[in-house]
Design goal:
The complex is a heterodimer of chains A (385) and B (331). Chain A is an alpha/beta fold and 385 residues long. Chain A has 14 helices and eleven strands. In chain A, the strands form two sheets. Chain A has a nine-stranded mixed sheet with strand order 3-2-4-7-1-8-11-10-9. A two-stranded antiparallel ribbon of chain A has the order 5-6. In chain A, helix 3 crosses helix 14. In chain B, the strands form six sheets. Chain B has a five-stranded antiparallel sheet, with no helix packed on it. In chain B, strands 18-17-16-19-20 form a five-stranded antiparallel sheet, with no helix packed on it. The chains are: A alpha/beta (385), B mainly beta (331). At the A-B interface, helix 1, helix 4 and helix 5 of A face strand 1, helix 1, strand 10, strand 16 and strand 18 of B.
Amino acid sequence: MAPRPCAVLGIGQTKYKRRRDDVTLDGLVREATLRALEDAGATFDDIDAIVIGKAPDALEGVMMPLLSLCDALGAIGKPIHRVHTAGSVGASTAISAVNLVESGMYDTVLTIAYEKQSEGNATWALSGGKSGGQGAGGTFAPWIRNYIARSQAPEHIGWMVAVKDRLNALKNEYAHLHLPDISVEKVRESPMLWDPLHFLESCPSSDGAAAMVLGNDDIAKKSGRPSAWVISHAKRTEFGQFPGRDTVRPQAGVECSEALYRKAGITNPREQIDCAELYVPFSWYEPMWLEGHLIAEEGEGWKMTDAGDTELGGSFPVNMSGGVLSSNPIGASGMIRCLEAANQVRGTAGEYQVPGAKISIGHAYGGAAQYYAMWMVSSELNPEL
Amino acid sequence: MPQLHDVDYTLEYPYTRTTGPVIGPFLTGLRDGRILGQRCGDRVLCPPMEFDPDSFATLEPDLVEVGPGGEVVNWTWVAEPSAKHPFDRPFGFAFIKLDGADTDLVHAVDTGGDPQAMSTGMRVRAQFRDERHGSVADVYFVPEADAADQVIEPGEEPVTITEHLIGLRINEPLYPHRARFAQGLLDGKIIGQRSPVTGKVYVPGRGYDNMSRVLMSEADEVEVSDVGTVVAFTELNPVQYYGQTETEPYVRCSILFDGTDQPVIGIDIRDMTVDEMRVGMRMRCIWRDPEERSVEDIDNRYGNIPETVYARFEPTGEPDIPADELKEHSW
């Protein structure tokens, strides 16, 4: 039996900020949820099930938050599911919600992801609470250097990505970082954190939540609002360490994108996809994922960045919203990539809209670059490629 | 099997909580000697809630004083209090319906350690602690007859953020394969496990080959060389989080020891700078004297080859291994 078509009916985001000291954790997820319901023209009564995701519980020290957040999410008396795949969780959560609609089990599903990073410390949590933690940047830096060595990319590529995403963020009211005077010089002169990553090439630590209302084709038609159809999605996993692992171009990432494109009939992603929201917490991951997800040939990703192709107005815009480099409520970051891809194809991306965008992808990765979740959305259920 | 230390550490962090528009006034009230409930339709909820649990509607902050007296609706007895409990003697946890409230507050009742003094339907009254921080633990309950009159001086600023040291103690034996690996380090040996399926050698072994999905036991263990090749390195500028003892930058590297198929990650290098490190560089472990070696930092999840067993790693002076031959080991 073919899956039921699934559409994004409503999108809600909070303002992303270093510390949201005006709301509780409950109030934070509530804010995104109410905005998504409003955007969908729906109420809690319309929701059949809830899927929630966040990064490790140790980030805020709230165990099993899906239970304590039931009131805020209107989940009393309804099924609630929790998803956890480290940093990729926001996208995995969205896809898990799509599965529930596609299966025919539920007509309308609310999905939400969040992090209130200010209530704990992510590097402490990623270090298992021990001194001497390496953190995400310390882990990824050697892999990035390997990418640079392999691809012969010039060092300014990372700086360019850092500037581009922050300039895009200026057009997004929800973005955490608004750095109007960002420049390649400022990025280059900012402190070196983990060679080759400078401070301004790294993501911020944010509080925030993101939510979507998803529904099947009947609900979408009834709503009479522009929908983003989820025409394909894929998740893949590999071990964090094993002999033969390519950490620059992980096989699970390659296979995830192959599965995503195959299901949608995409044979030339660079040409057939209009724009992408990729999970880029450190600048160099833009060219690495352009290659690792088969948008560019191996060794060619940085040339797209260098030529300005990935800018708003370029031939393949990436992270039009400002990306993870501008807002990073970890658990929500993957869901933001998915909902911003949906904003593009619905034509609701405001100042950072790619004109006429018809097909877009949202992507996230997590752990030691070992979990992948990607979805493809389109303005049409059966788009002409 | 070697008898090594048990793992015993506490994973803890001083988390903060933003209290928001309803819980904030409730905690401020407790600090100031008052218990507040939140109006919800024609009911008063105590503890207060931000959202109507029936209709899911957002509740506008509308707090009214309840208590300090109330009735025990149900209760249980804590015969052996832990360090985190509110009393160091046996006490009751009770559902308490405070006067003026329509819902029950779960809280602690001190009867001087006497379970016979607890009963359903008993009257209790709030008592406030001398030191109050805007916490639910600022208050406790006693049988009404035992209650003392208190004069509480209100504090100044409203309670908007609270801090809580939340932790989990982990106390368990080292897994057998971890104990043998750690004992090897004390003996100046690096012990790996060779997969019986693929012949690949893993250091430290996990007790199973995750690629072939087979268990690996003592019979699969091999001593490997303490000379190897740097496959990745990074300079750490320590983030100053709670419990961090590192203050200065240092280098951390991954070394593929000769005869193995997976690098040991997280080896600390304290006497070389990042400029002196190269992928492909050959390095040798210079062990500490046997009596100076310690493996206390090794637990079942963290700790590979800790600094406490070696004096340093030093370059052997051999020619580098070409980086492209190390592609599949770049962790």
